[in-house]
Amino acid sequence: MARVFVYGTLKKGQPNYKHMINTAKGLAKFQGRGRTVEKYPLVIAGKYNIPYMLNIPGTGHHVAGEIYSVDDQMLQFLDEFEGCPDMYQRTLMRIEVVEWEGKSGVGETQAAAEGVVECFVYSTTTYPPEWVGLPYYDSYDSSGQHGLSYVLRESR
């Protein structure tokens, strides 16, 4: 099992969460909520209003999201879904645990007690330079006050 941190449309209550609970795509077990230890720019960009975490450590905000434990099948699905490695790149990042639900063993408890876990995160280094000038968010909600509702793939 691998640990994945999601900050955008794959979170609970967001437009693509259905994929996280579709066991035909693999297993994803919610572990808790967290935020990036380092600051990153989280922007909403493109004509489909897609949330992107730009891989520029030290700039932006501590980005909030959810921590999942996923099996290899789900990790492979997420790689494909996220257009990895072209649109997003899957990298390890340090995530500060804000609220922990995972109780799957000593290692999990140890990590949660220390307050920081390593998770795979889909961020991007392949973006147009003007995205750096977009507003930065610390948390993503498709129906947030920004007014930039995400456009589902099936509606494009």
Quickly list its features.
alpha+beta; Hypothetical upf0131 protein ytfp; five-stranded mixed beta barrel; two-stranded antiparallel sheet; 7 strands; 31% strand; lyase; EC 4.3.2.8
Mean pLDDT: 93
Instruction: Report helical residue fraction.
Output: 10-25%
Please provide the ordered H/E string of secondary-structure elements.
EHEEEEHEHE
Backbone CA Rg: 15 Å
Counting structural domains, the number is 1
Share in β-strands: 25-35%
Considering the protein shown, what is the CATH homologous superfamily? Gamma-glutamyl cyclotransferase-like
What is the third-level CATH name, the topology? Hypothetical upf0131 protein ytfp
Structure summary, number of beta strands:
7
**Biggest sheet details:** 5 strands, mixed, barrel
Shape: globular
- What's the CATH first level? Alpha Beta
Total of helices: 3
Terminal Cα span: 33 Å
The residue ranges in which pLDDT falls below 50 over 5 or more consecutive positions are none
CATH architecture: Roll
Major β-sheet strand ordering = 1-5-2-6-7
Tell me the structural class.
Answer: alpha+beta
Spell out the blueprint of helices and strands.
Elements: E1 2-6, H1 17-20, E2 28-36, E3 42-45, E4 50-53, E5 64-70, H2 72-81, E6 89-100, H3 106-114, E7 116-123
Parallel strand pairs: 1-7
Antiparallel strand pairs: 1-5, 2-5, 2-6, 3-4, 6-7
